[in-house]
Design goal:
This protein has 2 domains: 8-165, 3-Layer(aba) Sandwich (Rossmann fold), CATH 3.40.50; 187-230. 44% of the residues lie in helices and 23% in strands. It is built from 9 helices and 7 strands. The protein has helices spanning 8-15, 32-39, 53-65, 99-108, 127-136, 169-174, 176-181, 184-206, 213-230, and strands at residues 21-26, 43-50, 72-76, 91-97, 118-123, 139-149, 152-161. The longest helix has 23 residues, at 184-206. It is elongated. S-adenosylmethionine binds next to β2 and β4.
Length: 231
């Protein structure tokens, strides 16, 4: 992966960035996503935010080597603090982190959101609490994708602020649009997850020390939901 050839995962994220967007890529690491999009003429400006020094320097280098310093600003900042009002950001990508981390970045950085931005989120697990945050904060899920790369299942959640929506507990768990679309990749992901849940339950049953009943019930409920989804 580099600034020309994105991973399949980031390529799918890129597909959800509106043409001509002013993008803030939070946790940009090498800055490959904004640089690739700018090289293709797909966005008009970008901010690459990084909280850690080494990836911040890597992003600066990628931007500099591609002669894009006038169009992409790299900032060392925690989460959405990388965004300034004068940037006029219209889309925010937060990718390659746990869903809870993405949720915390959004929650701590609410003051930096103007409510008009499209959020393009790519959590590595922890999708339910992230969907819960979106619902609680007036966001509607516009698109959802699941894809497999290097034997990992990745999800992409695209959301915009809209009229309030209510998602059921199962929609928060599986994804409301996924449940309607039932794509082959989605069903395969949950077939794999069901096998893992059954293995976990078997491990609990064999465990030397008693596993708390609450924990067993929680995994059993998830296995039941997945079985019903796949039925
Ligand atoms: N977004 C890239 C991708 O999807 O390939 C890089 C993902 S990398 C696994 C996660 C990056 O997020 C790291 O470079 C890390 O320093 C950065 N990060 C984690 N928490 C952050 C925060 N609160 N604010 C800004 N960057 C953060």
């Amino acid at each position: 992966m580099n600034q020309q050839t994105l991973s399949k995962r980031l390529e799918r994220v890129a597909a959800h960035v509106p043409a001509g967007a002013r993008l803030a890529d939070i946790g940009s690491d090498h800055g490959y996503l904004p640089v690739a999009l700018m090289r293709r003429g797909a966005i008009s400006a970008a901010v690459a935010g990084e909280v850690a020094l080494t990836p911040f320097h890597a992003a600066e280098r990628t931007v500099r080597e591609n002669d894009l310093t006038s169009l992409i600003t790299v900032r060392l900042a925690n989460g959405l603090a990388a965004i300034e009002a004068r940037d006029g950001i219209t889309a925010i990508s937060i990718c390659g982190m746990g869903g809870e981390t993405i949720r915390d970045i959004l929650d701590c950085g609410k003051a930096h959101l103007n409510g008009q931005e499209r959020l393009i989120l790519q959590p590595n697990g922890g999708e339910p609490p992230l969907r819960q945050w979106l619902m609680d904060n007036g966001y509607c899920i516009l698109a959802e994708e699941v894809l497999q790369e290097n034997r990992f299942d990745y999800e992409i959640i695209v959301a915009e602020r809209d009229k309030p929506v209510r998602y059921s507990a199962r929609e928060l768990y599986f994804g409301p649009l996924h449940m309607q679309a039932r794509s082959p990749a989605f069903l395969l992901k949950w077939q794999r997850r069901l096998r893992q849940k059954h293995k976990t339950l078997a491990d609990f049953a064999r465990a030397q020390q008693a596993v708390p009943e609450e924990k067993i019930q929680d995994v059993a409920r998830q296995a039941q939901w997945i079985t019903e989804l796949l039925a």
